[in-house]
UniProtKB/TrEMBL annotation:
The active site is at K100 (schiff-base intermediate with dxp). It comes from uncultured Campylobacterales bacterium. Homotetramer. Forms heterodimers with either ThiH or ThiS. Residues 7-253 form the Thiazole synthase ThiG domain. Keywords: Cytoplasm, Schiff base, Thiamine biosynthesis, Transferase. This is Thiazole synthase. It is found in: Cytoplasm.
Amino acid sequence: MLDNKLKIGKYEFDSRLIVGSGKYKNFSMTKDATLASNSNMITVAVRRVNITNPNEENLMDYFNNTNITILPNSAGCVSANEAITLFRMVREATGIDIIKMEVIGDTKRTLYPDVIETIKATEVLAREGFTVMAYTSDDPIVAKKLEDAGAAAIMPLASPIGSGLGIQNKYNVVFIKEAVSVPVVVDAGIGCASDASIAMEIGADAVLTNTAIAQAQNPILMAEAMKHAVFAGRMSYLAGRIQRKAYASASSPVSGLVQFDV
């Protein structure tokens, strides 16, 4: 039986696909693509997209009466203190306590995370009752430190944010999955549906993608493709793939064949 429930801290989701809200032409398209993806969670860079000011166009208004959870993220923060202050303000304004921790160390080229500052911020906010989903490098040692700091989910990058390069080191994702007991969500660098399926096939608990959907020529169609890819990848992982072999192996038995006179 396929268990498709994603459990992160005290939260439970029916979908293992998480989507982003950036790079769409407007909030209506953001909503339409999110609904097409069948995702239950959309991450929002709260320093760039309004979810706290009711007097301006507010993304949260578009998701009223849906089952979609808003996941604030701290994109744009470069220190633990910035991220901590931001999330305290967000919880005060919205009541949301499930967050995506994102502290960037290189803001110019790679957008790689500052894992030291990420760990610091995770420790503080986890103690304050936040459910922290931590964006990090694909390093199993760091992943374990984040879990020890209180992270409810580890979110290793597949490749640089927005690059569309897919998973550059599948082994590290597997190592992270072995190192921690919390869910592992492959985040950043997903370019197409097959990338998402591969992430799930190697054992990731979920996938987060934004640019691959928002910047596709047909975002709605790509969102649907991602939905099916994540589901199929999960099914394939649970089914158990065959072992790889160096040489051919006949599908039919080679002994006891019917003999024909020639």
